[in-house]
Design a protein that fits this description.
It is built from nine helices and eleven strands. By secondary structure, it is α/β, with parallel strands linked by helices. Helix 7 links the parallel strand 4 and strand 5.
Length: 268
């Protein structure tokens, strides 16, 4: 079975920016507006952030624009990371952006020491690309360890738990004069849906088709918020968001809660 990283390398990476609308900087502004509304912005010089599953960088560039002095961008696709580096250069953000080619599960403890990150984002449906729910739970625990007290975690994802039927399973993603992408959903079990992507491209007057498939997790909103709480994070926002995605925003509790005496807490 083809994994999500393999599927992106073989088929989707070269089309990913086009799928987002072809303008990464416009996508970055949209993501910055979302993060800013959630209150996810740098509060001090030297605040650092992580972008898990960065792709070509809309979230990474958004975090830089929100004042983070260093943003580590982790992705399994070297093609998309190379594209991110180009976008960062055009935005004058090369010094602030640090691409890392790795699986986010392996990279998180390596690039983020405990209590070091002011913000961690995992957006663009990255969570559903993990192999299983246990991987999601483990990642959330890793996020909690990496965040400093008061640090933010934001995830966006599609809740695929509601099963579509018949022709509703065919989803047009984007169509332009020279390219179109359609995906078809095949529901395997309670935890998994197979995504079949069909890409048509026009070249030299001829249409060419390429097809690929990969498994995606079905993450229920209630399950993900419960797992985030179990990892030790406080939920601040969990609701539908733009482009059919759900938005989850959580914060690592401060070491001392408002109104508590620091000495009393440390003695207790």
């Amino acid at each position: 079975m083809t994994t999500a990283p393999e599927h992106y390398d073989r088929l989707l990476a070269e089309h990913y920016t086009w799928m987002l609308g072809s303008d990464i900087h416009a996508s970055a502004r949209e993501q910055a507006e979302l993060l800013d509304r959630l209150g996810v912005r740098a509060e001090a010089d030297g605040d650092v952030a992580l972008d898990l599953g960065s792709g070509p960088g809309p979230q990474t560039l958004a975090l830089v624009s929100l004042g983070y002095s260093s943003v580590t961008a982790v992705d399994t696709s070297q093609t998309l990371l190379d594209e991110l580096a180009e976008h960062a250069a055009k935005a004058g953000a090369t010094d602030a952006v640090h691409p890392v080619h790795a699986d986010i599960r392996d990279a998180l403890p390596r690039v983020a020491p405990p209590a070091s990150a002011s913000a961690i984002v995992c957006m663009g449906d990255t969570l559903t690309h993990l192999p299983g729910k246990a991987d999601v739970s483990a990642l959330l625990r890793g996020v909690e360890r990496a965040l400093r007290p008061g640090g933010h975690f934001v995830a966006t994802y599609r809740d695929l738990t509601g099963e579509l039927r018949g022709t509703d399973r065919f989803l047009p993603v984007r169509t332009t004069e020279d390219r179109l992408l359609t995906c078809f959903l095949e529901y395997v079990d309670d935890d998994t849906v197979m995504v079949h992507d069909l890409v048509h491209t026009l070249s030299a007057g001829q249409w060419h088709a390429r097809v690929g498939s990969y498994p995606k997790l079905r993450l229920a909103a209630d399950w993900l918020t419960d797992e985030t709480r179990h990892a030790g994070l406080d939920i601040r926002h969990a609701a539908p968001g733009p482009r059919g995605m759900r938005v989850l925003h959580a914060v690592k509790p401060s070491a001392v809660k408002p109104g508590e005496d620091a000495d009393a807490v440390s003695d207790g």
